[in-house]
Amino acid sequence: MSAQSSGENPDFRGMLVRLSNLLKKDDLVAMKYMCKDIIGKRDLSKIESFFELCDNLESRDFLGGNNVIFLQKLLSGCCSGRKDVLHVLESYNKTRNNISNGTASNNTQNVQFVPANVNPQQIVYMAPMPVPGFSSHQVSPSSASYSSPTYGYKHIEKEINYLTRKLGREWRFFMRTLGISDYDMAEMEQQHPRNMREQIHGCFVIWVQQNKGAVHKKMLTKALMDVSVERFDLCANLEENDFS
């Protein structure tokens, strides 16, 4: 069972059932696509229901009774901001927080039991050891680098600022062509709700960090000409250094 066991909150499964009753087929398709970088094509092709998707995310420690951050991003990004869906998760979070606050003093997570035939004074108590490869708060490495960028981009700053202003609804396809994951785009959307320019600029910063600063104009023009983007006007302007 996942480290973020649903046993930590008995209403966790009930919340998932309520969500399943509200979600549409297209919602599941969109959520599977957003999980592409986490789950992989082979396992995704076997997933046919919301419950199966949740089970897979649990097995990878992206979901659990006390870990619904990624689920919230999926619902926010794939359900067109539907209030009925988001309300289910908000209610669950409120209940979970109330339970946590009410039982904080009785937390037995780190209790160590001593056998009856052993003198307690002879026991050496040790802090719980971290599990290799597991973090209770899964963070995308690239989105983490956005908050503290290591590599500069002065040499391509004009191009980035220009595209930040000029890209429209096709910006997600453009970012995917550059190699930005849907997870990172969802992260930027959550950090900068209703501010598309900040979302786009944040993705550019991630792109620079992913490539360790080794980015250049040709990478941008190639992405602009991709069949999923086809912004030949912006491509031509970049080629001519026209940033007006």
TrEMBL record:
Signal peptide segment: none
Listed Pfam families: Death (PF00531), DED (PF01335)
GO biological process, one term: signal transduction
Limits of the DED domain: 11-75
Domain Death residue range list: 156-228
Database matches in CDD domains: DED_FADD
InterPro entries: DEATH-like_dom_sf, Death_dom, DED_dom
Keywords: Apoptosis
Keyword tRNA processing on entry: no
Name the UniProt record assigns to this protein: Death domain-containing adapter protein BG4
